[in-house]
Amino acid sequence: MRVLVIEDDKKIASFIVKGLKQAGFAVDHAEDGEEGLSLALHESYDAAVVDIMLPKLNGLSVIEELRRSKVNTPVIILSAKRSVDDRIRGLESGSDDYLTKPFSFSELLARIYALIRRASGASESTRLNVGNLSMDILNREVVRDDKNINLQPREFTLLEYFMRSAGRVLSKTLIMEHVYDYNFDPQTNVVDVLVCRLRNKVDKGFEKKMIHTIRGVGYVLKEP
Amino acid sequence: MFLKNPKLLFKSNSFRLITWYTVFFVLSSLVVNIYAYTVISTFIYEQSREEVGEDIEELKEIYLESGTEALHTEVFEDENDPFIVRLVAKEGDTALLRIPEDWEDVNLGQMNQALYSQDTQWEYLTESGMEERIEFASLGVSDGAMLQMGQAVDAREELLSRIRKVYIFSLIPIMVLGYLGGLFVADRALSPIRQLISTLNSIVEGGKMDVRVPVPETDKLYRELISLFNTMLDKIETLVNGMRGVLDNVAHDLRTPMTRFRGTAEVALASEQNGETLREALVDCVEESERIQIMLNTLMDVSEAETGAMKLNPERMNVAPLIEDIVDLYDYVAEEKGVTVKTGFPEEIYLTADRSRLRQVLANLLDNAIKYTPSGGRVDIEASQEKEEVKITVKDTGVGISDKELDSIWDRLYRGDKSRSQRGLGLGLSLVKAIVGAHRGYVEVLSKPGSGSVFSVHLPA
Q1: Cis omega (within 30 of 0) on the bond before B460?
Q2: Which ipTM did the prediction report?
Q3: With an 8 Å Cβ cutoff, are B332 and A197 in contact?
Q4: Both ends of chain B: CA-CA distance in Å?
Q5: Contact: B333, A189; criterion CB under 8 Å
Q6: Which single residue of A140, A162, B153, B407 has CA 20 to 30 Å from B239?
Q7: pLDDT, tens digit, for every residue of B220-255?
């Protein structure tokens, strides 16, 4: 999969590019709006990461121009401003998601995956399997090694999210947004408590743990 | 600026005011002058015609009663009379003619053209050939004859022409006066605006934010404009000072975590570098940076709300489902801690507020309540619609707050003795208070150490 990164700050650009390459993406990088726009118009990408403050042509204009030219590559905006107005303006210009600096790379990655999945329009499977853990979404059943796991609705939603993003780190903010549909700074321990409960049900009694805490970043579910 | 571009001069308000004032002044003076001249000249005409008018009536009586002979005697009685007298018979022949001695060469041809009329008609003898200006009256007599009488009117014409000259020359001082008056009026009318400009200048160029324009006592329109302008300046000043305060606060409050951040990194660099220690240090740095980020955001929120710079998107809404959402959010947290959360409020409680901000307020209060309530305790959230406000209370059976601390709990970054061991930044309650304040509401707390606290939020409905 191919991602375009339009970002003028060299350090930020370099960590995004490195990180995305490590995650297996092919990455092109543009340092200003004009270069970025011409790349986006002439090449084909699965997603684009666009900074708002760019030399020559700002990020919002790049996106508007893309949408005018009927290029529907999903776009994530990066911005140093966090006011609601900017968020709305960003989304109005035709971007698909919005991330405020400073952001954690794992969150950016998770959002890029989510955008690509949404854009590909692939119908979501109703059966998920990660290692010996399997989930039947229609019947709301979770089984690990033939052992039935009984989950409450929020726990179920979280586990489904974990399984769909298996192997990728999910930040507290992402979990908060996904499970509770909230987007404010998680100063509470709501997410920790929820993950802790889920872990007790999924990992308890098993020698190999599936849900891991990545300190300072978030949580990840992966095959034991 | 005006002199560089003449077009601007003509368009300028003060030029227009002066011009209009001058034109109006001159025109009204002109009207008054013309009226006065008409009155005066009518009077002078009447005066000068009075004698001839009376005489001609008298001669008519004599002619009618006693005939041409008697008229002749009467007319030639006094040789010094300065009048021309003529009697025209019905057929148009001159029956009688008397001309004063000095006017022997007078040409009376024009008198023949006078039309018969029973009323006295006045006409100038324009082709008399004399130096004097002569006016004559014609009066028809009942038998078809016509009496005519002429006299010199030089004095009268001279007087009128002088009066006319006086009026015409008076126009010059009137125009000057009009212009000066216009200048004065324009100056008076525009002086509040000039004051506005000079105040603006001292703000824009001098950077003096505390300058205000003196409010004029006289004109209502200007008074309104200027007090509005001053109000605007007040608002800008509050905002600017507020933003300055935000910067100071944020810079100050971030120093500590920044120090920790840097310290962690430096210690790791200076230590004997094995992979695991470095990894630990990096993790600490990431965690610290996240804390700084959250702190920065919260501090900005608090400061913006406190200074009125926070942008709120108020909407009319039912607050009951919102409270249910928050309780649901903390469901597991409370359950894990062994704290029971009970709610009690009607299904519909309407108020106007910013939804996400209000959610932040409630989440913070509930978070606090659960945090400081030991296992087995209980938290009650109640809400009620009162006349002009909505009251939401969060009551816990927690550790309580001592009197000494009650006043400080709303302060930024204040951490009570009992809260030091808990996670948190010490910003939650100050954010609650600031957001509620930005909604023009207020917060209250009642507490007794050992038996719990009651936090209440009052918001205008």
Answers
A1: no
A2: 0.74
A3: yes
A4: 54
A5: yes
A6: B407
A7: 887 888 888 888 888 888 778 777 777 777 777 788
